[in-house]
Amino acid sequence: MASENEQRAFDPKASEQMMDSEKHIQRNPHPDFKKVEASRPEWVEHDKWAFTQTRKADWKLGDGPNDGGECLKKDHVEIDPYAEGRPAVSNYKLLISGIIPRPIGFCSTRSKDGQSTNLAPFSYFQVINHDPPIFTIGYAGGWDRAKDSLRNLTDTGECTINIISEHFLEAANATSINAPYGVSEWALSGLHPAPCRTVRADRVKEAVFSIEGKLVDTREFESRATPGKKTGVLAIVEGVRFWVREDAINEDRNLIDPAVLRPVARLGGITYGRMHEAVEIPRPDYEERTKADQAENLIKPKVEGQ
Question: Is 172 exposed, middle or buried (0-12, 13-18, 19+ CB in 10 A)?
Fold first, then answer.
């Protein structure tokens, strides 16, 4: 009987499928990206993480938007995701350009026989619970076209999730390359594996924050536009061990310094976002805030449309 690795070698090349997908999606809008990049300003190093005031620091209950109502002067376009003639890729482009910024789960896995590893970024990623720590990872394609990362995760039930920081952005992005099966993303990216405590999949040593994960469940999704076609798999992962760089964690080990983490977010197309500024807004207390803002006249029962 053929081994797991031999069976995968006989399948259509994942690298070719990935390239075909990229040609279809056309995430990169630039025929000559390097020429476009060379025309832009150089990278700016930001030494400090800065807090600013909100746009309208004197905002009070009932004030509404902080732009003086300018946003209310614009109309909206209604879009049916399943409209006749609308390709699914249009929904993909719309969603990844509108649901931003998205955190990136930089996922490391190892095959069941231990002979192969995979390292890849996923922006269909989020933390959804803290007790237990639960994370979700979304994979494009169904089980019939499962990526090595998903196969490894389901075969072993283990992974590590690393958060991408500015200091290894280029290397992390390089792991999304359409390399043939068996080629190491670790070697191509120049990143360094570090051992974990409870899982066999290595964490990324360059990462400020990493999570050892155990698979909880998966669910496959079917296309609405093309019934029978499997288009995605959701993986639910429990975090069982955390790793934080010593200069990024506070004494109580419950806060990570964003100035050290320097997280990178995913935007639409081939765009990434940086974070250097933030605002703080306390969650309001009903009695205190209504009194302070003299907003008693705003206290009304809910009506239709509210």
Answer: buried
Q: Which residues contact 235 (CB under 8 A, 6 or more apart)?
A: 136, 137, 138, 139, 150, 153, 154, 215, 217, 218
pLDDT tens digits, 121-173? 999 999 999 999 999 999 999 999 898 999 999 999 999 999 999 999 999 99
pTM of the complete model: 0.89
- Residues 298 and 61: beta-carbon distance below 8 Å: yes
Residue 16 has which token pair? 């070719």
Residue 58: half-sphere exposure toward Cβ, Cα within 13 Å: 0
Beta carbons within 10 angstroms of residue 17's beta carbon: 15
> CA torsion sign, 142 to 148 to 150 to 151?
positive
How many CA atoms does the CB half-sphere of 71 hold within 13 Å? 4
257-295: pLDDT as tens digits? 999 999 999 999 999 999 999 999 999 999 999 999 999
